[in-house]
Amino acid sequence: MIEDPQGVKSSFSEKMRLIRFRRKKENLRFWQEFKLVPRWLIWMVVVLFLIAQIIGQMVLHHQLANHQEVFGAELDSDPGAAGAALFALSPVCL
């Protein structure tokens, strides 16, 4: 038996039924949950993301200007596609 914080013993199925009931009654939205994150943290993440994008683009264009291979032969001939690939891959790498 599992004991509730109130001291009531209940079976596992009763506990799951209570969890499902609470989940149906709660009306949580993404933005309500997002408001729990401090604003300074949101801005710091945005600024760090932009800094990473700028540094990545600068390195990419420097390597392309020196005719060094960055992503492969397919993207080396098209700097715009290489920049888009870097932009798409950077959130995954961070």
Quick recap of the structure?
The protein is mainly alpha-helical and 94 residues long. Helices cover 69% and strands 4% of the residues. The chain is built from five helices and two strands; from the N terminus they run E-E-H-H-H-H-H.
Write the topology of this structure:
Elements: E1 2-3, E2 9-10, H1 12-25, H2 30-34, H3 39-65, H4 73-76, H5 79-93
Antiparallel strand pairs: 1-2
Helix pairs in contact: 3-5
Q: How does this model look, in words?
A:
This protein has 94 residues and is mainly alpha-helical. Helix content is 69%, strand content 4%. It has 5 helices and 2 strands. It has helices at residues 12-25, 30-34, 39-65, 73-76, 79-93, and strands at 2-3, 9-10. The protein has a two-stranded antiparallel sheet. Strand 1 and strand 2 (9-10) form a beta hairpin. The longest helix is centred in the middle third of the chain and has 27 residues, at 39-65. It is elongated, with a radius of gyration of 25 Å.
